[in-house]
Amino acid sequence: MAGVLFAGLTMTACSPESYDGADGNLPSIADYADNFSVSVDQSTNTATMTFVEAPGVTPVWIVDGETYSGQTRYTRYWRKKGEHQIQAKVKNRNGISDGAIDFNINIEKTKMNGFSGFDPDGNNPNNLLNGAPLNNNETWFADEGWNKLDPQPVPSVNGGEIKITLPEGMGSQRWQGQLKCKNIGIQTSSEYEYDFSAIVTMSKKHNGFKIKLCAQDDEDNNILLDKDFKVTEANEPVCFYASELSGIDTDNLMIVFDFGGGEAETEVIIENLCLIRHDLNEIEAPEELAIPFNYDDPNNVWKQIDEAGAFEEGCWFGDAGWGDMGVKPEDLKSVHEGSSHQITIPAITVNEQWHAQYKWELNKDITLPFSGNDVIDFSCEVTTTKNLPGATFKFTQIDNDENFFFADRIPIKAGNYVVRYEGVSLSKGEDAPNMKFVFDFAGAEEGTVITIKNVTVIKH
To answer: Phi/psi zone of residue 305: left (φ > 0), alpha (ψ -120 to 50 degrees), beta?
Structure first.
């Protein structure tokens, strides 16, 4: 079978386990070594453990020291790449064998949630970074006073994967946590545009790290990419990318990462690096997401609403003639967990704004008053299982639909999207004693699942 590898095995001895009434005839693992096999299908990230049945004994599978099974055929799936240990033993009526067979397996690739990059399989011959030496690196981490830390963190490089742990004492400012990959031997030209992607996993959130591609001999002026990215979920691999970058003339491109402001002991993994000429790239970049504001910002006045559930849901769905379709809030199968709000579209409507409304009214224990002069920043993260021909996000005075911060209709493709407004004020400039959110998904297909999470409203 393509993509299936058979794991090697070793035999280890360990203390026997026995049960009351045992007569001492514990099974010997050596007698059953040929009965065990483990295969790994890298295309599905699944290991299959098989035991050929034998009289009087059954298998015991121990996966990563914590998962147990006695099945003669047992499968286990991992979404994320990594190494795993499988121990195999045999058991009879007297107890478990005094030894084990160890299988060490490796899941080679993470199954991504969302975009996987411009070279997801790592074998595109047009990827300039395939096989590039990434171990010629240097670090410069400093404290708040810009004093270089001693010792410096030491990255590890395994093929196209870089790992580094952010140190204690690192400062909070940009350029106080630098990792440079130098002398990688990559040439680029101003005659072409380029696309870049990399998968990054961090064990803790990061409010803004930088990726920079530049000429090694002129890193301040000859720049291909200089962009900040945000990690909003710990331990979740995310593909960060940029497309149609104006090329630069250099025969020695350098890659720079900066983690200034990250938490100490954050483990960072960078993999699947890709730099490809745009005209040679057959993978279309998804619409680039805006960077959301920090949901955990102490000035986010909406977080208290989520925590208390201090809102009431409402909805209104209308037909082409604006007749009420009779949809009730319970028909949306809404689920609110933490910062996440999920609904399912119960019926299709015409593709005209305000025919499929869903709202949150703040009429419980907490109100959000704003003055006519207030300015806010807003963001929320949206996931939809199907295309939305038009999605409206409106944050408006609870008793005056004409006095709102924003009310734009946005087409959103299936997948992820970030709605973001910066420095907006009330449209009428009038005081609002309380607010409500009104969403509209007119034209969305029946059964579309929409999730709105990390709603952030920061008052200046």
So the answer is: alpha
Is the distance from CB of 250 to CB of 216 less than 8 angstroms?
yes
Find, among 71, 27, 28, the residue nearest to 49 by Cα: 71
Q: What sign does the CA torsion over 306, 264, 157, 186 have?
A: positive
Give burial (CB, 10 Å; 0-12/13-18/19+) of 365.
Answer: exposed
Q: How many helices (H) and strands (E) does the chain have?
A: 1, 31
**What's the N-to-C CA distance of the chain in angstroms?**
60
Q: Is 82 left (phi over 0), alpha (psi -120 to 50) or beta?
A: left
At 387-432, the pLDDT tens digits run: 999 999 999 999 999 999 999 999 898 888 999 999 999 999 999 9
Amino acid at 428: K
Q: Is the pLDDT of residue 296 over 80?
A: yes
Residue keyed to tokens 């409203």: 457
| CB neighbours of residue 217 within 10 Å | 10
**What was the pLDDT predicted at 111?**
81
**E strands present in 216-279:** 223-231, 238-246, 253-258, 267-277
CB 398 within 8 A of CB 377: no
Write out pLDDT tens, residues 309-325. Answer: 999 999 999 999 999 99
| pLDDT score recorded for residue 208 | 86
pLDDT tens, position by position, 67-107: 899 999 999 989 888 899 999 999 999 999 988 999 999 99
DSSP state at residue 329 = G
Structure tokens at 393: 């996000």
Higher pLDDT: 110 or 190? It is 190
| Residue 43 buriedness (CB in 10 A; 0-12 / 13-18 / 19+) | exposed
CA 311 to CA 295: how far, in whole Å?
18
Helix, coil or strand: residue 32: helix
Contact 234, 205 (CB under 8 A): yes
Question: Between the CA of residue 401 and those of 310, 327, 437, what are the distances in Å?
Answer: 20, 21, 10
Cα 57 from Cα 35, distance rounded (Å): 11
Q: According to the model, what pLDDT value does residue 7 have?
A: 57
Q: How far is residue 98's CA from residue 111's CA, in Å, rounded to a whole number?
A: 37
